[in-house]
From TrEMBL:
InterPro entries, A to Z: Cl-channel_core (IPR014743), ClC (IPR001807), ClC-type_chloride_channel (IPR050368)
Protein name: H(+)/Cl(-) exchange transporter ClcA
Membrane topology summary: Multi-pass membrane protein
Main location (coarse class): membrane
């Protein structure tokens, strides 16, 4: 009698071509998960790949902007655009919007651009996996938008792009939820660090915004990835700060601090106006599209046409806006100019994002914040010229305050401001303005722009794990069959159906738990409508104790991860 040979594991394409020792190592990682040292090495590789992805995306924007607008220096885009014929400024965003509309209609199910909100959702609810097909389409759409004059930022697309890299690695490793989220944090940290040459801020941004916890076990690999992404950026762009202040700012500490408290309150309100303007524009565009029966492909083109019309008279709204931001930080704008440009930028960002053209909101928030801070500083220093610091100090604090309030990330935004400018002498003023602005705006919206985006779609991440974990479990995965020993008798199930105490197998526990609370019942019927006479079929029962058990386990796992 011969033994039946054990089935052989199919060969992993990811390991094909590797030497035998490396193939065995990869097999162990897939089957058992990586050790700590192995994971740090994987984090380094993910950081390098994400850094190159961010650099490649920025280089692609520069190349297309140079090709479309004819400028030699994309950082002075709006100054050069002011010299172009009006019809070229008008049509470029419109043509770009038409291409964006085709891409999103063809390759996404809903015509929406993916960004940091989807990455945050993937971290919380999808074990760190970010959708690829729609993500690639969103990256292409954002690239076209930013290159053709769309008034958004490049950081949002970068965050989603590197999230796809992390998701691909997680799938290849067969990573569990904790490992997948850590890899996602590594990729985001490297992408943000490469975008801003800010490794400290990149690491904290990943934990504060994406993972939404500061677990000790994730700190080392995320830091490794952030540093590697920053090194890649410095290799290609040099070790320079994004913005250069004309001189070190002076701060009369105790006398002037109340002014920065007021600036924080003002910035929090401006951040709220910016976020609400974007959501209002999106709602209006949805209503118009439905009423006019406008093809989804034309929506970004119409938004681009409106942007082009504004840009003929105010080219400052074109693109990311770093030239105007630098002018505000240098104090090269008048009070009237700062106010007008800030208002127009809010309108332009709302049109771009409401028109679903692509791009992120962080860079526009930096520009608006710098303009608001400069305007505030001009007023404050005119009232108290003898005890006031420089107007540029207020611009710097306002830049961080508005951006931090929009992102809901006061810690990482404060560090980003430091690392963008290289000025560490104004830390107290920036920290005060950022913290006050974030606290105020967080009460007016669902904590941040991204979490409010998700809340508007019915995804309740802002309330914490106790709110969104229920949405992760389908009734079909928890229910028991009608003949299970613990299931109620058939007459009780029928009575529950008649009283409206039933759910469908495709529902989640988020829909089931309120029924339990209202009825004080210990079970719900699980039913499905039949096609013949419409009478529901009983598929099983959902016991209250089973739903609570699953929920408690998920809460315990989340708490264990956050405190590991």
């Amino acid at each position: 009698m011969t033994d039946t040979p054990a089935p052989r594991r199919p060969r992993d394409p990811a390991a094909s071509g590797l030497p035998a020792p490396l193939r065995r190592t990869w097999a162990v990682i897939r089957d058992r998960g990586p050790s700590k040292i192995q994971f740090w090495f994987i984090a380094l590789m993910v950081g390098i790949a994400s850094g190159y992805a961010a650099v490649g995306f920025m280089r692609a924007i520069e190349f297309l902007q140079t090709s479309l607008y004819g400028t030699d220096d994309p950082r002075t885009l709006h100054s050069f655009a002011a010299t172009l014929p009006w019809y070229w400024i008008l049509m470029l965003p419109c043509i770009g919007g038409l291409i964006v509309g085709w891409i999103l209609t063809r390759f996404t199910p809903d015509g929406r651009v993916r960004g940091p909100a989807e990455v945050i959702q993937a971290s919380a609810m999808k074990e760190g996996r970010v959708e690829r097909r729609a993500g690639l389409a969103s990256m292409a759409a954002s690239l076209i938008t930013l290159s053709s004059g769309g008034s958004t930022g490049r950081e949002g697309p970068v965050v989603h792009l590197v999230g796809m890299i992390a998701g691909w690695v997680s799938n290849k490793m067969n990573a569990d939820g904790v490992t997948g989220r850590d890899l996602l944090g590594c990729a985001v940290a490297a992408g943000v660090a490469a975008s801003f040459n800010a490794p400290l801020a990149g690491a904290l941004f990943a934990m504060e915004v994406v993972l939404r916890h500061f677990a000790v076990h994730a700190f080392a690999p995320i830091t490794i990835a952030a540093v590697s992404g920053s090194v890649i950026s410095r290799t290609h762009f040099g070790d320079v700060t994004e913005f250069i202040l004309p001189e070190a700012s002076a701060l009369a500490f105790y006398i002037e601090l109340p002014a920065f408290l007021l600036l924080g309150l003002t910035s929090g309100l401006i951040a709220f106006v910016l976020m609400r303007s974007v959501f209002f524009a999106e709602d209006v565009a949805n209503e118009l599209q439905a009423r006019l029966r406008m093809p989804a492909m034309l929506r970004p083109a119409l938004a681009g046409l409106m942007l082009g019309g504004f840009a003929i008279f105010f080219p400052h709204i074109i693109g990311v806006g770093y030239e105007t931001t630098s002018a505000a930080l240098s104090g090269d704008l008048l009070l009237r100019e700062a106010v007008i440009f800030a208002v127009l930028k809010v309108v332009a960002v709302s049109i771009t994002m409401g028109g679903r053209m692509g791009g992120g909101i962080f860079s526009p928030a930096l520009m608006i914040g710098a303009l608001v801070g400069l305007a505030f500083g001009a007023i404050a220093t005119s009232f108290f010229p003898d005890i006031s610091g420089s107007e540029t100090l207020y611009a710097l604090a306002g830049m961080g305050a508005v951006a931090g309030a929009v992102l809901g990330a006061p810690i990482s935004t404060t560090l980003i401001v430091f690392e963008l400018t290289g000025d560490w002498q104004t830390g107290l003023a920036v920290m005060i303005a950022v913290s006050i602005a974030s606290a105020l705006s967080g009460r007016l919206v669902d904590r941040s722009f991204f979490l409010t985006q998700l809340e508007r779609r019915g995804i309740h991440l802002a309330a914490g794990p106790q709110a969104y974990l229920l949405a992760m479990f389908k009734v079909s995965a928890v229910m028991k069959s009608p003949d299970h020993p613990k299931a109620p008798k058939e007459d009780r199930i029928r009575r529950a159906m008649n009283e409206g105490l039933f759910v469908a197998p495709g529902d989640t526990l988020e829909a089931a738990m309120p029924l339990f609370e209202r009825s004080n019942s210990d079970f719900l019927a699980v039913t499905r409508l039949t096609e013949k006479d419409g009478a529901p079929d009983v598929l099983g029962v959902l016991l209250h104790v089973d739903a609570l058990r699953v929920y408690n386990r998920a809460l315990a796992a989340t708490a264990a991860e956050e405190h590991s």
